[in-house]
Amino acid sequence: MPKKAQSGSHPRTVAVVLAGGSGQRIGLSTPKQLLKIAGKPILEHTLALFEEAPDVDEIVLMMNPGFVKDAEEIVRKAGFTKVSRVLPGGTSRNATTQLALDVLTDYDPTTKVLFHDAVRPLLSQRIIADCVKALDDYSAVDVAIPSSDTIIEVDDNDIITDVPRRSRLRRGQTPQGFRLGTIKDAYAKAWEDPAFEATDDCTVVLRYLPGTPIFVVPGDEHNMKVTQPVDIFIADKLFQLASSTTPEFGEEDYRQRLTGSTMVVFGGSYGIGAGVADLAEQYGARVFRYSRSATRTHVENPADVAAALAQAYSATGRIDYVVNTAGVLRIGRLDQTDEATIEEALRVNYLAPVHIAKASFPYLSRTRGQLLLYTSSSYTRGRADYSLYSSAKAATVNLTQALADEWAADGVRINCINPERTQTPMRTQAFGEEPAHTLLSAEKVARTSLDVLLSDLTGHVIDVRREDPVAASRQEAESTGKGSE
């Protein structure tokens, strides 16, 4: 039995994750919360948010009744220690909330309860913390963002009857937070109403406890709900902007995690590869650098790759991290490119990551390690004169996401770094000298790469930019939280 809040102690916070959806609205036989995004089920991403939240003490998961065992397996494999119960949900949102409240019957009325949609896997830690804090002063809290669209009201014949002022409108999100006593009282009154129907829990408080103020915490445009087929695509793309969620480790973390580990870096003689290798060695890793210029290692040659990995393993008895920054940049019209150049570009930029991945797997599966690949911002859209480079980098992204899925059960992680224009020898050779302030430093990319290698991420494409667009958009949303006309 989970612990109740003790008299006089800080109120306990319980997150209730609502995962009762069926997926029928997007034409699926499997609930959408079990679909995979960035290598993991949406449900796992969402549970991880509350598992990592320092203000959350316990998680109760309300699951689609037909998939409770699937959810239990996700919890078990991920090692979520805060999940106290996985229970079947009800036939409606309101019924599922009531079932969760029944579980919390013996809890102190001051307990803070956060109800969150399982299919909102991009919730920020800032929102969780703000909701918990707001419940110190209010007994009901909602999360919402300003509406950028004009909202119209229509009658049964689709004729406009009103256009409300946009400055007073918000788009609701979750979590919705309550003091346990408040939400229990609201539902007790609601069930006495034969016409009771509500799409969310704040509506229940608003209607049946009308004197209770409901505070609004500023939400986040990225805190989207996966409802329609296109949402799956959008959410997957938003996970690619993961620089804002990439854990940043401190000096002591680096030393503890890297000391005694073995890292193999292909393309480690200069640029980003050298930066990653230098940092890892600085914090105690045993690093083996391989490149065409320094060790005559040709990454496009499977035999060379196998020999390099075997050498590192023979010397240390383990391989924890494999990094591949090797690549060639060949610019020009495809119809004017000779066969030898085409062959080299494809072998180095795409077949090499394939060979490295295949050869690395046996070693990484023993250490539950990680493979780190690199793409380019040009992968998102092919550009003139970049046909070979862009297409190979797009293939590398797909390779990353596919292998994250394939290797998940083996505990092997694979991620891909997507740096914007970076000051490296390869770029200088292709474009000549450019103003330094317009380029990302190789050192910043190397530091982010190390953070990713030490993280639990898998299947992610991590953007590294001089300015973080996700953080910037969130700051803007928070600064304009009251909306405008």
What is the CA-atom radius of gyration, in angstroms?
Answer: 26 Å
The count of domains is 2
CATH superfamily of the largest domain: NAD(P)-binding Rossmann-like Domain
The termini sit apart by 50 Å
Q: Count of helical segments? A: 15
How are strands sequenced across the largest beta sheet? 5-4-1-6-10-7-11
The overall average pLDDT, rounded, is 87
Overall outline: elongated
CATH topology of the largest domain: Rossmann fold
Beta-strand fraction estimate? 15-25%
Name given to the CATH architecture of the largest domain: 3-Layer(aba) Sandwich
Enumerate the spans where pLDDT stays under 50 for 5 or more consecutive residues. 1-8, 480-485
Query: For the report, how would you describe the main beta sheet?
Result: 7 strands, mixed
Find the count of extended strands (DSSP E, 2+ residues). Answer: 17
Per CATH, the class of the largest domain reads Alpha Beta
Classification by helices and strands: alpha/beta
Helix percentage range:
25-40%
